[in-house]
Amino acid sequence: MKQKHYLTFLLFMLFCTFCSVALGHDFEATYNDKTIYYNITSDEAVYSSGTLHAPYSSFSGYSNSTLSAESGSIVATEEDESDTENLDDWESTNHEHNTTDSHTYQLTVSGYNKLTFDWYVSSESYYDILTITLDDNTVINNSGEYSGTATTYLSDGTHTLIVSYRKDGSVSNNNDNAGIRNITITPHSFPEGNITFADTNVKALCIENWDTNSDGEFSFSEAATVSGIGTVFQYNSDITTFNELQYFIGLTTIGEYAFYGCTSLRSIEIPNSVTTIQRQAFSRCPVLTSIEIPNSVSNMGERVFADCPVLTSIVVASDNPYYDSRDNCNAIIETSTNRLVAGCKNTAIPNTVTSIGNYAFYFCSGLTDIDIPNSVTTIEYYVFESCI
Fold first, then answer.
1. 259 FRET partner, CA 20 to 30 A, in 90, 164, 181, 309?
2. What residues does 118 pair with on adjacent strands?
3. Three-state secondary structure along 117-186?
4. In which residue ranges of the chain is CATH 2.60.120.290 found?
5. For residue 162, what are the CA distances in angstroms to 66, 263, 312, 356?
6. What is the pLDDT of residues 193-249, one digit of tens each?
7. Phi and psi at residue 84, to the nearest 5°
8. Per-residue pLDDT reduced to its tens digit, 9-42
9. Cβ of 73: how many Cβ atoms within 10 Å?
10. Residue 352 in contact with residue 326, Cβ under 8 Å?
11. Dist. CA 76–CA 51, nearest whole Å
């Protein structure tokens, strides 16, 4: 365990000891051919003859903001002047703890254009972070050993692309490096005409927020240049289907709570431009039945599908290099670590999974039993919290 988390661990254990009460067992699972009773109150798994605590040495599910706060204040060590025409590659030279360095590109385009770039990071997973934003919307937010190509779209005018690499206050792993290369901007045309929406409530919200030519319609080109949806749809109880989201091909992030509390939302199609789905993006969507994660998604937050009681199908695109739903398991698994990050009541955990991430089945209403294979060695925090 890292020293910087030791005090946090001790305080957490004292808290759990203080709060645990004998209220019976709320959840039953099978693990190593034994029955485990999962006590929701104390958030621990218990053998019928003893206690199996989640291995607290695994902190991979902590939010980056929490980790940064623990390591001390982040200070900028280098801020390059903005480029107006220079699209040269940029690589972080930052190797000091508690620091961030960054580079800013100002992109001025005429008409519609496609922006493409390669990115890479080789760092301590979950701690030293590469972040790329376009006009204040997150495009890439990754750590560990990853690389890829990102594509998004620019409308007429000036746009700001910022690349930054942030280090926390302790360990340095891998090559401790990150950057961007091969930036290209090319003219692009979209299908002519307007989108036909199945849900008139969705159409009205899109026109209200992104009808740039004020014609009372919403075109394919207007959808393509939306770079962020914010909380436009949050707590909306009227929208039922939003498969037209697939045409928002400039969208790279579905932010925190984006569709939280959409109580009538039954179906939605995520565009394959999205790289990040932040925490609780689809929480409390009680009639959402299925979801497909496209091949572009490289960063998944926690509790993305919490309290979606009728969600029975989770499929990750077969060519996604970061996540998978192997063996038709109805779950999202981080491929490089074999860590299950999100499941549903129909999840069948494959015997290649080695850890179950924080909140993986959080508020998974109706989940009454699940088999945990022998391959699982780590069960993180609040995995089965409020499952009944």
1. 164
2. 149, 181
3. EEEEEECCCCCCEEEEEECCEEEEEECCEEEEEEEEEECCEEEEEEEEEEECCCCCCCCCEEEEEEEEEE
4. 68-187
5. 23, 36, 38, 33
6. 999 999 999 999 999 999 999 999 999 999 998 989 999 999 999 999 999 999 999
7. -100, -30
8. 444 444 444 444 333 334 444 444 433 334 333 3
9. 8
10. yes
11. 46
Query: What is the predicted pLDDT for the residue at 4?
Result: 42
Distance of CA 186 to the CA centre of its chain: 29
109-120 pLDDT, tens digit per residue, is: 998 899 999 999
Alpha-carbon gap, residue 303 to 86, rounded angstroms: 40
d(C-alpha 240, C-alpha 242), whole Å: 7
132's tokens = 């790329």
Distance from chain centroid for Cα 142: 10
Give the chain's length. 388
What's the pLDDT score for residue 365? 83
Domain 68-187 CATH superfamily? Spermadhesin, CUB domain (2.60.120.290)
Where do we find the tokens 């760092």? 123
Query: How buried is residue 107: exposed, middle or buried, by Cβ count under 10 Å (0-12/13-18/19+)?
Result: buried
